[in-house]
Amino acid sequence: MLMKATVNGTDVTTAGIALHNLQKRYGSAMAVDDVSLSVSPGEFISLLGPSGSGKTTTLMMIAGFEMPDSGRVLLGDKDITRLPPHRRELGVIFQNYALFPHMTVAENVAYPLRMRRMAKAEIESRVHRILDQVHLGALASRYAHQMSGGQQQRVAIARALVFDPPVLLLDEPLGALDKKLREHLRNEIKTLHKEVGKTMIYVTHDQDEALAMSDRVAVMHEGRIRQVAAPKDIYRRPADLFVAGFVGEVNLIPVKLKSGIVHGPAGESLPAPKWQDADRDATLCVRPEHLRLEASAGSSGGIQGRISGMTFVGDATVLEFRSETGLQLLSKVLNVSDQSMEVGDSCVASWVANDATILTD
Amino acid sequence: MRVGSAANALDRWLPSMRGRGVPILASCLAVLLLLPVLIVAYLSFSASSYFVFPLPGYSLRNYEAFLFDTLWVRATFTSIRIALMAVAMATALGAMLAFGLSRGAMPGRGAMIALLLSPIIMPTVIVAVATYFLLARWGLQGTEFGLALGHAVHAIPYVVVIVVANLRDLNPSYERAARSLGAGPWATMRTIVAPLVLPALIVASFFAFLASFDDVVYVLFLGIGKITTLPMRMWEGIRQDISPTIAAVATLQMLLATIVIVVGTLLRRQKKS
Predict the structure, then answer these.
(1) Does the CB of A86 have a partner CB in chain B at under 8 Å?
(2) Cβ <8 Å between A89 and B182
(3) Is B270 on the interface with A (CB under 8 A)?
(4) ipTM field
(5) Domains of chain B in sequence order
(6) What fold, for A3-243?
(7) Is some CB atom of chain B closer than 8 A to the CB atom of A26?
(8) pLDDT tens digits along A106-143
(9) Is this structure's pTM higher than 0.95?
(10) Which CATH superfamily is domain A252-359 in?
(11) Strand partners, A22
(12) Per-domain residue ranges for chain A?
């Protein structure tokens, strides 16, 4: 069901997307393996994963360029699994934007309206309005190759939005750009999402992008969704080792869980959240910025070792720590005051219990 | 003018001319290659009815002789007719082949390309004789359509090579973008693919035209004396009486080829900008 929501006082068309057990096989390789996901109307969700994780294939099945071997795609409550792409009414923004090189900006933006056989005057006024909205009114007669990357993105957005689709699909739109521009454009997309209130599905391999822009992030690996959660929860409470390692830096400490206490590699007790289940081996995840290196152990315990290296990275210093059992850990400390630690100093690595995550897979 | 770095390696062996040795050598070679052409063009303005060098006087009588001789004019129209038929077939089939080869994932792609290019790799005489036997089976020997078929086969490789090169530059996401914006497969073809491939198709059809227009070997075998194209008429003209009219015809033909190449280059440049 399409619904009309009200954003900033104007009506917008938006709809949710639901994926039910999508599967896609290329030869013997499972590109997408039993993916289910429910996106609510107006939500910004990212599909995050390394290349080959199935995120782009999933997006292409939503857009209609790939047919799933099994499973269903729902737009609102309408089944669009078998619908050809031009009947889906979804806005797609491609990598490198795919602006038609033989058409001007205005012609590019008018294209979807022309395909809908709209009256000429109506097309003109709509194109005019949306180009003004993205501040490109003055460049309407330019060609794509005469514009900067940022302007091209805005044309692509205008072209994908001008026919008022309920959902916008974005396939790594910032992939080919340099870092500075990427950060700028990512803010533009975020602002746009607030303004238009459309459901957006954003494919990226860049974890910073996914965390900064999304309401929720779906982390994909080997064709499966490993975790779907708000960026903060993805980062702080990763569901498994892959998510922990892929999103941000992480220290992985092999531990033994025994009668409610977490024991480190040398048998020492370590700070960790409460554990109720049976005794077993597990991995403790601690982010480098949560790992503190201090001269003596606090009451909640820690790992004995010494500092083996130090790297200055501008806003912070990364300290390398080597425990007595040979475990390598990283600690990231903001450069707020003088570092008193030196390479070779012996110290204790510890953290606040709730900043650590116990993973048992 | 900068010639490739490999050519610049020659610089050391050439007399020092402030690094201009290679461009000068290249220019000399170009003149050497073009000289016969220029001499033919020069001779075409002869006032004499024999080949005399240097010219006794200038006139346009050879051009007149060409334009007002029914044999020559008829041969010209025959050539154009056959070339247009060959162009239509070669461009349509070649473009489709190019699409299939660059977009479709088909088995035996390499073998198919080798087969396609064989007419320009194998000696023309062999292909022409082989084509003759094939056409004779259907009674098409000595017909203009049969000759056009032969020319089309000869021209298809040029078309395929040009169009494939163009399609390689054509980002498939343009087609996907069009589909996502509401264009069906046919509308996508008409509004996106065709305009973007058109310059290459025009260039390809020019080359197909020239391939047919220039040919004398296929006519010799497939025409079995019944078809007189322009090159065939020239061939007969040379054998019977050596008249400078041939020089005029040759000059006009070269002019046509030059125009085709210049227009092709301009079209390609326009696409790049």
Answers:
(1) yes
(2) yes
(3) no
(4) 0.82
(5) 5-63 (no CATH), 71-272 (1.10.3720.10)
(6) Rossmann fold (3.40.50)
(7) no
(8) 999 999 999 999 999 999 999 999 999 888 889 999 99
(9) no
(10) Nucleic acid-binding proteins (2.40.50.140)
(11) A35
(12) 3-243, 252-359
